[in-house]
Amino acid sequence: MAETSPSRVTYDFVTRAIARTLGNPGKGYYALLSLAVALLGVGIVCLLFLLRYGLGLAGYSHPVYWAVYITCFVFWVGIAHSGTLISAILFLFRSGWRTAVYRTAEAMTVFAVITAGLFPLIHIGRQWYFYWLVPYPNERGLWPNFKSPLIWDEFAIGTYLTVSTVFLIMGLIPDIAAVRDVATGWRKKLYAVTSLGWRGTNEQWRHYTRGYLYLAALATPLVLSVHSVVSWDFAMAIVPGWHATIFAPYFVAGAIYSGVAMVITLLVPIRKLFHLEDLITVHHFENLAKLCLLTGMIVGYAYCVEYFTAWFGGHAAERAAF
Q1: Burial level of 102, CB count in 10 A (0-12/13-18/19+)?
Q2: Residue 224: its H or E element
Q3: Entry pTM
Q4: What would the pLDDT profile of 73-125 be if each residue is shown by its tens digit?
Q5: Burial status of residue 124 (CB atoms within 10 A of its CB: 0-12, 13-18, 19 or more)
Q6: If DSSP codes are grouped into helix, strand and coil, which group holds residue 64?
Q7: What distance in Å separates the CA atoms of residue 213 and residue 226, rounded to the nearest whole number?
């Protein structure tokens, strides 16, 4: 398909194209919503069944103590990182093509982090004591075991969720104000409240751009630190093949790799269903594919290093495993 002429993509064109997607939902939306609610009900029933009969139903046994939950946890945390990468890092490098895709990535990040936080809670078994993971003052002077990977995950998820949510909401303020100006009825009132009185004055833009820059600079190290902490769930084990220093960069690269791939997976149907071909072009998919290629090569290098160190190190257990 031919690329859209730059003269056609004006601010007014973008605003009206996005506002058009915020109208009344059709039958397809309610059908998918019904399916999602039905699957949620099935998940709740399964969770109640698990609470009733114990975590052994999930395959917990010696020496497997996380089973499928750590796999799901790493998956959701991994795909959450692309929002910070595309939005924060590319903003710092002033990559203009991010403007068409970063909002999808940011929203995906917040929902993915929330989903990831469910699995450590399920894993602890007695979910009604989840607040024991939080170092709160109590009359017995007890503190969590800070050597436990569960505590690391709790701090990593909490920090990343807080910064990502603030980053998303702050970035939405001018966008909501733009939609507010073309909306009608109750939607206009809702957008008027959620835009926080944004008028687009020079003073507001000056404070906004400075605050957004600081948040981007704060969120960027989280891409590296959060998934490095998650990788230590595995790397801190003394099991041969797991106790290795390659895990932190390997997990970070793998997280960005899977996250960018998920952004592409979301953008393809969004572009088609909402008729956003003029805004999300082939150029954006090419740049995302380049990120996938780069991070995929890093992940492939990490795989090769694992085999090389097992062979070069001469450790009998690692050689047998690999």
Answers
A1: buried
A2: helix 202-235
A3: 0.83
A4: 888 888 887 777 778 888 888 888 888 888 888 888 888 888 888 888 888 87
A5: middle
A6: strand
A7: 20
